[in-house]
Amino acid sequence: MSTATRTVTHTSTGTLAPLLPGTVALVGGGPGEAGLMTVAGRAAVEQADVLLVDHLAPSEALGWAPSDAEIVDVGKLPREAFTPQESINALLVQHARAGRRVVRLKGGDGFVFGRGMEELEACAQAEVSVRVIPGVTSSVAVPALGGIPVTHRGLVQGFSVISGHVPPGHPDSTLDFEALARSGTTLVVLMGVATLSAITAALVANGLDPATPAAVVARGGHPDQQVVGATVADIAARAAHVEPPAITVIGHVAAFAATDTPVLEEVI
């Protein structure tokens, strides 16, 4: 971790302070369409000279930017060409040092599996001022949009959010699936579409009841949102047709999944 001095600002409950030239704003774009972004996030986009945008950021929000703002696509797609994180960090610093108002816009919240801290540290090393504008994290909001609370009185008293980008047993995996299977908490799996079969098999092998409810919410926060409900033993097969982005919820609360009727319009 860097020991460089960091200049980090945050927003108050009032009007967003102007985004000063030479400042980077790390903006969470929320869990779906632009209407789910925060007011502060929108205000930052409206002031941007340049936006560095991920593929899960709400595309409608780009219409809020000034007409002469530069928009740079730095999205990362699984198993496809992508912009390395080091290049993104360098672009943030480069544009800020040129006196521009820089907005780094990504989906959900940038500090939940979003490498937000890496970007903050890169700016700190370069002595670039950073404003953090959190977004509504998809790990909680997407289940809610699918009718699933991650906690519920009398059922579960906590939840665990895990990354599924590598399968159990992979050298890069640091997850303890025995502990997760025995935790008694709701499990929320992000980036786990390709590895869902391996993840559910590992949980069952480590003691999780195969009949435990499970659900996959795909394209959460969008009009074409889809919810697939099953048990942990068969959710991978039932949701085999689902494409990213999708979030899997495993636990008793997944039984609440709204699989028959879309709930997006009701929620927002």
TrEMBL record:
Keyword Magnesium annotated: no
InterPro entries: 4pyrrol_Mease, 4pyrrol_Methylase_sf, 4pyrrole_Mease_sub1, 4pyrrole_Mease_sub2, CobA/CysG_C, Siro_Cobalamin_biosynth
One GO MF term: uroporphyrin-III C-methyltransferase activity
The keyword Transferase appears for this protein: yes
EC class of the enzyme, as a word: transferase
Record's keyword terms, sorted: Methyltransferase, Porphyrin biosynthesis, S-adenosyl-L-methionine, Transferase
CDD domains from the UniProt entry: SUMT (cd11642)
BP GO annotations: methylation; siroheme biosynthetic process
Entry's EC annotation: 2.1.1.107
Record domain Tetrapyrrole methylase: where: 23-235
NCBIfam families listed in its UniProt record: cobA_cysG_Cterm, PRK06136.1
Protein name: uroporphyrinogen-III C-methyltransferase
